[in-house]
Amino acid sequence: MKYLITGATGHLGSHIFNDLIKLVPSSDITAGVHTVSKAKSIADTGAQVVGIDFMKEDTLIKAFEKKDVLIYVPSKSHDSFSRVTELENVIKAAQKSQVGHILAMGFIADQANNPFDLSAFYGYLPRRLASSGIPYTIVKNALYADPLVPYLPELIERKNVIYPMKDQALSFISLDDSSQAFAKVAATKDLLKNEKVYTLTQARNYTIPELAKVLTEVSGSEIGYQPVSLDEFAAIYNEGNEGHMLSSMYDAGGRGFLNEVSEDYQTIMGRTATPLKQFLMENYHK
Fold it and tell me: Which residues are CB-neighbours of 213 under 8 A, at least 6 positions away?
C-alpha cells in the first residue's frame, strides 16, 4: 500500500506521519508539504517528500499518482469557503490520479444547524466525498485537549474558565490519541471501510464546572467558572483574527453540539482514549 499524507509537517499531519511509520515501511509513505525544505526530518526516515499547493491542482495530481490511500488533513484556514475550495481541488485531483481511498479528517461540529464558522465545511465533507466515486473513510475529532495545557497559567491567573458555554458539556481527545487512531485506520484493511465514519472522543464529556474541577486538581489552584459573553470572548481572543471563529465554536458548544461521546476510539485501538485528567497531569508542569 502506498500512502500520501497532506500537511505532513503540520499540527496533526506530522503526528500521523510519526505514528504511521511505526505500522508500515517509511518507503511506502509520501509526505505532501507546502515547504519541502521544512521536511528534512521526514525525508531522513526514508519517506518521500513532495511539494503540494491545495490551490494548484497540477501539484496535487502529481503527488497523488499511484497512491492507494490519501490521508487528507485540511489546511488551517479560518473560513469554510477556503476549505471547501481546497477540498474540491483535492477530490478532482484524486479522481484524475485514481486514488484508491481517501481517509479524511472531520470534526464533531458538523450538524446542519451548527453556528461554528467551519461547520459548513465539516458538513460538506462527507456529502462531497459520497458523491466523488472514490472510496472514503472519515475520522472525526472531538476538541483537542492539548491547548488546555498552555492555557492553564492564564486560567490560574483568571481563577475561572470563561468559555461562554451555559450548562452544556464538551468532549475531548488528545492529539496523540487522534493521530494514533488515524494511523491505525490507515494501515488496517478491516478498519479502512468505505463510507465508515469514526468519532474520536474520550470516554466521557465535561460540563464547564466539571472541567474547572479537573483543572483545579491538576494545577493545585482554585479555578471556577465565570462565563463571558460570546462577543467578549471573541474580543479577548482575537489574535490572528480568530476571535469570531473561536466564539462561534463555543456558541455551538453552548447549544450542545460539542458533547458527543463515542466508543469508536476503543474499537480502533483496543483501549480507551487517555482520560482528560491523566493527559493533563502527564503534560502540565507547574
Answer: none
Is residue 119 in a domain? yes
Q: Please enumerate, as own/partner, the contacts of 17-20 that have beta carbons within 8 Å and a separation of 24 or more.
A: 17/42, 17/47, 18/179, 19/179, 19/180, 19/182, 19/183, 19/184, 20/71, 20/182, 20/183, 20/186, 20/187
In the predicted model, what is the mean pLDDT of residues 95-112?
98
**Rounded-to-integer distance, Cα 26 and Cα 81, Å:** 34
The total number of structural domains that make up the chain: 1
Q: Is 239 exposed, middle or buried (0-12, 13-18, 19+ CB in 10 A)?
A: exposed
**Residue 90 domain boundaries:** 3-143+173-201+260-273
pTM exceeds 0.85, yes or no: yes
Q: Is residue 254 part of a domain?
A: no
pLDDT confidence band for 240 (50 / 70 / 90): confident
